[in-house]
## 1
Amino acid sequence: MRDRTHLEQIERWGKFVKENPNSWKREHTQFIDAQIMKAWDFYKRLEKTKGGMEKIRKLKELRLSQSNRL
């Protein structure tokens, strides 16, 4: 179970969304885009390491096997 601070953050975000119906989407999009960029940067760095491409292949296989369980 997550701690109380996590629940408090969810409540703050919910309040922000209710109070800012037109601007929360922009902030959320910026956050998601930043997460995607970090992932791309990670994969680019991993590709350059010894065995990096093999690790990426294994990660993709793991992701596919987990999505097939849903």
Note: The chain has three helices and no strands.
## 2
Amino acid sequence: MNTAVLTPRFNGAAPSRWQALGAAFTLESLAIAAVVAWIAAHPASPPLMPLAITIESAPTQAPPLPEPPAPLPLPTPVKIKSTPPLPTPPPTAPATLPVVAAPSEAPVLPAAVTPVSTVVQAPTPPAPPPPPAGPSGPSAEYVAKVRAAVQAAFVYPAAAKAAEFRGRTRVAFRLLDAKATGARVLVGSGMGLVDNAALQAVQKASYPLAPADQKGSELNFEVWVEFRL
């Protein structure tokens, strides 16, 4: 399509202003014509259909719970084999031990005392009958008085008394008119200190007078001198 462009002519003082307005109008007309021609040549396309887009959000999954710990295995029971009881041995008779006689204990003396003799006391023999003096010998009553006189004159040694020593000594002597001679120890006591005291008792004793039929005769005696606390 051809469009005639009319250029007005102006006579007067401002031909440049109208020329500018004409040029602008011309350009605008051309642009409108071009648009119309383009639309005529390109028919309108069908309108775009909006597409519905659905966005599905993934479900929020909770974190998995921790698995519970596995139970500990139970201990395997151990079977204890019971040991059968041992057979009871038959009772045996107790062994018979030989009886050993305990040694006799020696008397304990103080450290300051030195025993004069260490003679071990022998078993006491039975007292023999008094020896006969003269044709008939002294009577039993007179012998008892002589023994009592010796026992009364015995003085217990202090050392033996402190050691609580007990025993007896058998002495022999001769008696003539109430005087003792030849005193000696027949059986010792085990402590010389005590035996010496028994001999001194024989010498210091006060003897009774001999019977009338024994006067002037030497009589032999053996007596036991005993010492106890």
Note: The CA atoms of residues 140 and 213 lie 14 Å apart.
## 3
Amino acid sequence: MKQQDISIPFCDKCAFETGSLFKYLTREEIDLLNFEKEFRQYKRGEILYNEGSRISGFYCIHSGIIKVFKTGLDGKEQIIRFAKPGDIIAYRSVLSNEVACTSAKVIEDCRVCFIPSEILISFVKSNSSYAHELLKLACHELGEANSFITDIAQKTVRERLAEILLLLVADFGLDDQNYLQISLTREELANIVGTATESVIRLLSEFKSDKLVELNGRKIRILNKKGLEKISNVFN
């Protein structure tokens, strides 16, 4: 990939702008991170790593969006999360010294920093504040996974789709016309809801008829957030 005329971000500035965990590092650790990291760029559709592979480091997202997913026996994707600027991915495989339990694919052109495994391990050993925040992050992600499992078991597809739309609003926000600031295919929406693409297409059409959303290709405009909250049973 061509990287001329690219300004490589400094970790201390980037950490405070995105709220990443690296803001808990010392000056010396930040200097080491800036020296050891590898800056990379990826285009939509490119794979960062595959499930089952042995990876030698983890990734911090500077810009763009990456989907993290698992692949079922039938080849169907189950999207676990979307990583955005400030997020780190693949760190749990590094900490556990296991093969990657997920795959990561770019859905919006991104710039990332690849950080060698030994750097993360050294920070965990030497910086208790950083280690504590990393533990909190892992627990938060585990809690989200538990909630997703409960939703799959107890909520209807209609409720789950409404909830996913609200989560996307919370994570990525809306532009000045109330469009979601993340563009997903119907298949990608289905893969995070955990249902067939046809079901998502039908339900989005129903949401449009009920004036909850407006559809413009991949772009989704939120018209009635309260209505989606009522359907999702998020606050019940």
Note: The radius of gyration is 19 Å.
